[in-house]
């Protein structure tokens, strides 16, 4: 997500961490699932008819990797993802991506609620500055931290890229 409309973000190394995990998953022959948001709203930065919605070249799905296209933040909502995971015998998910407070959090919550063992990689995610309901501005770092705090221990386990790679 590189749309300027989204504003200032945190974690400038997130893409490096995602690429490190993606490379490791590919080298070890693990299943990789790419999720692409294609919004139903023309006002959205995810509207299919605009630049920036396509995958960046470095994140292009490889042959045999799954591509899930979603219309809302939650990758499980109306995509068939749960059925495909269960049919494949996959019960553990490592979740990375953008935005921590939106798609990552909603997908991780659903994964946890459905009984999947969900792991969110904190340094392989990022988000943006955001105002709360009352109009108080919060930095992307604060939004990221709160979102991870919402998830950890209840819906998912929050870890670093290094921890995931060391566990292998």
TrEMBL record:
Q: Which domain of life is it from?
A: Bacteria
What is the organism of origin for this protein? Pseudomonas cucumis
**Which keywords accompany this UniProt record?**
Hydrolase
One GO molecular function term?
hydrolase activity
Keyword Zinc attributed: no
Q: What Pfam families does this protein map onto?
A: Isochorismatase
InterPro entries, per database record:
Isochorismatase-like_dom (IPR000868), Isochorismatase-like_hydrls (IPR050272), Isochorismatase-like_sf (IPR036380)
Which residues belong to the signal peptide in this entry? none
* Name under which the protein is recorded: Cysteine hydrolase family protein
Q: Which residues form the Isochorismatase-like domain?
A: 13-162
């Amino acid at each position: 997500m590189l749309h300027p409309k989204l504003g200032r973000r945190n974690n400038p190394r997130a893409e490096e961490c995602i690429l490190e995990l993606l490379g490791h998953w590919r080298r070890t022959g693990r299943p990789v699932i790419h999720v692409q948001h294609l919004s139903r709203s023309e006002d959205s930065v995810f509207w299919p008819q605009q630049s920036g919605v396509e995958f960046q070249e470095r994140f292009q799905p490889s042959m045999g990797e799954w591509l899930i296209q979603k219309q809302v933040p939650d990758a499980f909502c109306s995509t068939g993802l749960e059925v495909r995971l269960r049919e494949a015998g996959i019960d553990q998910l490592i979740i990375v991506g953008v935005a921590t407070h939106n798609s990552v959090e909603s997908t991780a919550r659903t994964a946890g609620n459905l009984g999947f063992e969900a792991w969110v990689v904190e340094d392989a995610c990022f988000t943006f500055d955001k105002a709360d309901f009352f109009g108080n501005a919060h930095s992307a770092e604060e939004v990221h931290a709160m979102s991870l705090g919402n998830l950890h221990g209840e819906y998912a386990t929050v870890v670093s890229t290094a921890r995931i790679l060391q566990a292998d």
